[in-house]
Each structure stands twice: as C-alpha cells, then as structure tokens.
Specification:
The protein has 376 residues and is of the alpha/beta class. It has 15 helices and 18 strands. The protein has helices at residues 21-29, 50-61, 72-84, 88-96, 105-113, 127-137, 161-167, 187-197, 209-221, 225-234, 243-251, 264-278, 307-317, 326-332, 341-354, and strands spanning 12-15, 34-37, 42-45, 66-69, 99-102, 143-147, 171-175, 178-181, 203-206, 237-240, 256-257, 281-284, 287-291, 295-298, 301-304, 324-325, 360-363, 367-370. A 5-stranded parallel beta sheet has the order 2-1-9-10-11, sandwiched between helices. The protein has a 4-stranded parallel beta sheet with strand order 5-4-6-7, with helices on both faces. The protein has a 4-stranded antiparallel beta sheet with strand order 12-13-14-15, covered by helices on one side. The longest helix has 15 residues, at 264-278. It is elongated and about 85 Å long. The two termini are 41 Å apart. The model has no long low-confidence stretch (mean pLDDT 92).
Length: 376
C-alpha cells in the first residue's frame, strides 16, 4: 500500500478514549499506524441515582428559565433516565419552556434528537463562554439548570460554573448525569505513562477533559508526572479533540494540536496530516532516515529497533553529522553502566537493524556520528 494511503505508517499512537475507542483505533490503523489502547476513565451512568432523580423532579415541578447542556452523552443519559422514571414527557415540556444553551455541536445534536431546540451555542465550545454570555445579560434571581459533566478536578482551569452563577445571584439546579472514575485496572494506563515518559509513542490522543485529568492524576500518584509532562513537551505530540479537552494540558505548558471540528473522523484526519509534518527526517547521502517513537523509516522502509537502538539513534539524530562520544551514548543507553564496550555492541546491532550500516560512522577515538555531510 502506498504511503499516500498510509501516511501514519511507522507511527505509534496512544488512545486514551473509553467510549468508541475501537472505532477510533480503526480509523488510525487504516491510515497505517500502530495503536496502543489505554482507557483513562470509566464512565458510570447515574440512571438509578437518587440525586439525579431529585434534580429532575425539581425541574419538572419548577422549570428553569435557562438550561445549560454541557455534554452529549450526559444529556442523552439524562433523557434516558427520565424515561425510566416515567418523567420523559414531563422533562421535555419543562426544558422546552426553558432557554437551552448548548456548550458545543455534539450536545446540540443530542438536544435536537430529543426534539428540543437550543437557543445559542458558543463557537469556542467552552463552558467559560457560556458563563460569560449569561453573566453579560444578568442572572440574578433566575432559575438555571446546569447539566454537570463529572467531578471537577485540580487539573481543570477556570472557575466552577455553578459556583460562579450562584455568586451572581442565580438559583442553580445542578444535574449530575454521570460520573467518571479511573479505570479499575490501571496497568495499561501506567504503561502508557511510561511510554510517554520514554518517548516511545509518537502521539497520544485525548477525546475528553476527564481523560486528561485521570492520566495526570495517575502520573502524579505514581511519581511520574514531571517525566510524563517532559515527554509531552519534547517529543510525544498531545492531540486533543477540542479546546475544552486541551485546556488542562495548555495550563501545564504542554503544546497541543487539534482539528478544527471536534469529531473523531476530523481528529483522525488531523493526525494523519499533522504527524508526518512533525516527524524528523534526515538526509544522509542518498538515503533518508525518518525517526518514529518505536522505529525508524529508512528509504520508506520501516525498521523496528530495540530500545537500545532507539536510544542511540535519537542521541545521534539530535546532532546530525556531529560526533557523539561513547560516554554520551552510554548515558543514553537504557540501563547505562560504566563500560563503553556496551556502546560498541549496541552500535553494531543498530547498524544491522538499519539495513544500511554506513548510516552510522565510527570516528576513531572519539565516538560515532550519522554520516551527514556537514558544510564548512
């Protein structure tokens, strides 16, 4: 298959989604990538939750002037739970008498699927813009229903929507439609955190802010937070479905990239266009060497390398054409040690794995270099 059809050939991409993860992984593998799955959250519906039923009955009894809908899955779950309690028609009537503000296009679709209509939705898909919109027109004395989207964490920038509205004088009804928790088994998530820290992934994708928060929480709990953030800042591309998802990472000075539309298909297309542009390509004589998280591409042929080989090629590629000493390469090798003979052995294996041994030159008594011709 041509590289045009498989632009992600050789790339390894981490997927943190829990919902539709297999569908998203298929979109990426069709474009040639390897995919590592590590669901970062577990969504727990609250269809049998007494607090959700209480809030729903309160809204039916006294419809709000304004309803803020924040997530599609949450809004659909709310309507489904109301149907189970025999309140679906009553809830629809209450909401239809309300001004519905939708945070983004996905929840807009869920609102319309329930045969309701939103009054307004921000272009930014941001709760903060919804808040600004309401505060600008005044909320004192107004009854406002806020569909929540899980527990708030330390990683989410900005103020709590309900708290700000209450402080401005609104009568707020919080609607807790679901909650999220970390995965029951964190093994795959821990492994992905290590891979990000080791730069063994080319990119990691996030499709919700809770997934970002859960990974940050787990990395902090395991003592890997700073090394993981360093990996995201210096080699592993953080790809987010939209600005709300990206916000916690941006707050931590992690560069992010995202599509113009917050959709899985758009996200997959964006990755296929963006990652190849970011990839390191080095011309070495008549050959082209491309670096990936777990492998290299030599003249359009994917070459899988052992961790030691990847460590060496990264160290050499960081200084194309310049000599890298045995001592420096020894430091880069997994496990390190004090014997530079380990470097000679690892270089021999690297040359063999590359298929073009001459790409790595020996500089007698000094070290090794990529055979890039340097200008005077």
């Amino acid at each position: 298959m041509s590289s045009e059809n498989t632009p992600l050939r050789g790339f390894t991409i981490g997927v943190t989604a829990s919902r539709r993860a297999d569908e998203f992984a298929t979109l990426l593998t069709r474009r040639g990538s390897d995919v590592v799955l590590a669901p970062a959250i577990r969504i727990i519906p609250l269809s049998d939750d007494a607090e959700l039923e209480r809030a729903t009955r309160a809204i039916v009894a006294d419809p709000p002037a304004v309803t803020i809908a924040t997530t599609a899955i949450g809004f659909r779950g709310w309507m489904g739970a109301a149907d189970g309690w025999g309140l679906a028609d009553s809830l629809s009537r209450a909401l239809s008498a309300s001004r519905i503000l939708a945070r983004g296009p996905k929840v807009t679709g869920a609102i319309r699927a329930a045969e309701l209509r939103e009054e307004w939705s921000p272009e930014s898909e941001s709760s903060s813009e919804v808040l600004e919109h309401l505060l600008a027109e005044g909320v004192a004395g107004k009854r406002i229903a806020v569909q929540l989207h899980g527990e708030r964490t330390e990683w989410e920038p900005g103020d709590d929507l309900c708290d700000v509205l209450r402080a401005a004088g609104a009568d707020v009804v919080a609607v807790p439609v679901y909650r999220w928790t970390p995965p029951e088994d964190s093994t795959s998530l821990d492994r992905m955190i290590e891979q990000i820290s080791d730069r063994a992934l080319d990119a990691v994708t996030y499709t919700s802010a809770p997934a970002v928060a859960s990974m940050l929480m787990r990395a902090k709990a395991t003592g890997m937070l700073e090394t993981m953030l360093q990996g995201l800042r210096t080699g592993v591309t953080a790809v987010c479905v939209g600005p709300v998802t990206a916000a916690p990472l941006i707050e931590l000075d992690v560069p992010v990239t995202m599509p113009t539309r917050a959709r899985l298909g758009s996200l997959a297309r964006h990755i296929a266009e963006d990652l190849p542009r970011r990839a390191v390509r080095i011309n070495i004589g008549a050959h082209v060497l491309g670096l990936r998280g777990r492998c290299v591409v030599v003249d359009d042929e994917v070459r899988c390398l052992a961790p030691a080989g990847m460590a060496l090629i990264r160290a050499l590629a960081a200084k194309p054409g310049n000599v890298v000493s045995r001592e420096e390469l020894l430091t880069a090798l997994p496990g390190g040690g004090g014997d530079t003979h380990a470097v000679e052995t690892a270089v021999a294996r690297l040359r063999s794995a590359l298929g073009v041994p001459a790409l790595v030159q020996t500089v007698v008594k000094r070290g090794y270099r990529l055979a890039v011709e340097l200008e005077e």
